Amino acid sequence: MADRVAFSQRFRQEGETVCQFLSALLAGKCDFGSTLTERLRDQLVIGINNPGWRQELLRQCPDNTATLQQVEQSALVLERAQIQHQRLSEQSPESEPLAVRRLKQKPMAVATANETHRTRLLDAGKDCLQCGRRKHGSTERCTAAGKVCYECGKRNHLAVVCLAKGCAKIRDQNSRALNLLSSHSGRDSLSDSSGRSVQEISLDSISAVDLVGNKAVVPVRLNCCEVEMVYDPGATRSVVSETMWQKIGKPPLEAAPALIAYTRVPMETLGKARVKVSAFGRTRCLYSRPSVSAVFYPRI
After folding, report:
1. Rounded percentage of the chain residues whose pLDDT exceeds 90
2. Residue 190 and residue 208: Cα distance in Å, rounded?
3. Is the pLDDT of residue 250 over 80?
4. Helix, strand, coil tally for the chain in percent (to 5)
5. Would you say 293 and 198 are in contact if contact means Cβ atoms under 8 Å apart?
6. Structural domain spans, the chain
7. Which domain of life does this protein belong to (predicted)?
8. What is the pLDDT of residue 76?
């Protein structure tokens, strides 16, 4: 009885061939007599240990008229087919189904477009931030003047150097900072997170820094308007608010290169205008840039 129980619980092991499995079944001492071939046939199907093979064997031999030889032959065909399939899969570098590969692979056009896109690095001291070429001379007109960027929709710069959309970035430089100043009315001042009315900004070739945090305020006349300005001896650019620009008579605006904050965020300006500046007993006509967000002042 124990041998027959062991026979009925015998299943083909992993790596065991059909012939080896059948030989192991024949080695048992079960005394089946005339029903031996029928029991071997049934156990070969039951213990084949492959659901797909078992289903195929039952499809090919649906009733009890099938012989052991027929079932064995069908199992051997299935075994050989699997071996051939494994060999082909090992030889082929693309073993995944075609439908799966199509889903995983990027379309050629998309991949090419992504690979060819590169962020352009600009040198604020050498490159024009409007067109990307070398900085123009004082008499040269930038080709981007008056043009509309098709990336962000703003004027006076080309899409290839659009900082707002990430098409270009300003190369990191060890430049000093410009201090944010405030006008006498207080409406144009900004504060940083520590509550100070000074915010360090790096703009183009501007270089000035307040090392001690104390501001020296001096009276200045812009056109015919008296204002108080913080003395910033290192700055080379002057940026005033749109409110201040209106207050000093709205002088005519010209196209001006973009200004970039130290966080690499472009500062939107309306342009540049010549302003009559009087301070320290001297009067000069200087360029000033109206900005919609902040007020900056240079050395006079």
Report:
1. 3
2. 18
3. yes
4. 30, 20, 50
5. no
6. 2-91, 106-172, 178-291
7. Eukaryota
8. 92
